[in-house]
Amino acid sequence: MIHAAASVVASIPSPSVSYWDLGPLRIHFYALCIIAGIIAAALLTNRRLTRRGAEPWVVLDISLLAVPLAIVGARIFHVLTHPGFYFGQGRQWWNPFEQDAIWNIWDGGIAIFGALLGGAVGAWLGCRWTGIRFWSFADALAPGLLLAQAIGRFGNWFNQELYGVPTDLPWGLEIDYPNAAWPVGLPEGTLFHPTFLYESLWNLLGVLVLLWAGRKLRLQWGRLFGLYLVWYCAGRVVWESIRIDPSEVFLGLRTNVWAAIFGVVVGLVIIVVQKRRHTGNEPSVYVPGRQWQPDGAVHSQNTEDFVDVSAPPASDVPEETATSAVPRT
């Protein structure tokens, strides 16, 4: 039940501005948060991949396809889950000068679940292009993806959007009044749950959990990415459930809650299936025959994996031990 917040002794103020105007160019802080998140994810993913023998900055080659498709997927998912914003009476969804036209991603929003779908397609294509194993890349990306989402969520703080139900807690979020997204019937001075902050803190904790799990539990073959889906989507179910921004509702739940539940299920399926399919460690982050050799390295005809010359032939070694010489991630 939505109610006005009581008097509190502290709160989180919202920024008074959300963009800079540099001549004719307007720079939105929301976009800067997203860009900062992408850069942080690329840096962390590059470090994780190169430690396993990948070519330095191959992540950029993959990102050339993954990032644009992620943005397209994010916009498509938002449009499909908010059809009234774009196809309602009097709307000209095809008109680029219409506010909230489907082409104008700066008006109306993007959705992370669409970004995951579009980005996955782009990453798969990028991995095919570079020779990197798709699941190796997904596992290397998982902590960085949570870090990017933690940083990107602060864009909602600058935009004063996607906040939760009213609260009288000391960390209640102040929103400018009047505000186009202000819930009808609530008085000026009402404070709201800062869902952007909850999700950011949850994601930062998740980064630590994934880094620990990858190192100590040696989750490979996509299982670390599966854990990412479980962790992120489980938290998203909670934060999404207390948001009060408009959303399509099916069977009593917001569309993004259903998407998050589906994400948890997919993550669990990936963990279980990949655990059964692959009982040993990954031999390399590259598919057979596509290994990268640094300048000056001794080239070998055997490019299937890192070879321990003191070990018996690979055909005589079971999968569980054949890759014991592979550096830990």
Automatic annotation (TrEMBL):
**Span list, region Disordered:** 307-329
- On the tree of life, the source organism's domain of life is Bacteria
Q: Does the keyword Membrane apply?
A: yes
Ordered alphabetically, the record's keywords are: Cell membrane, Glycosyltransferase, Membrane, Transferase, Transmembrane, Transmembrane helix
Report the EC code(s) recorded for this entry. Answer: 2.5.1.145
Please give the family membership noted in the entry.
Belongs to the Lgt family.
What name does this protein carry? Answer: Phosphatidylglycerol--prolipoprotein diacylglyceryl transferase
The lineage is: Bacteria, Bacillati, Actinomycetota, Actinomycetes, Micrococcales
Name of the gene: lgt
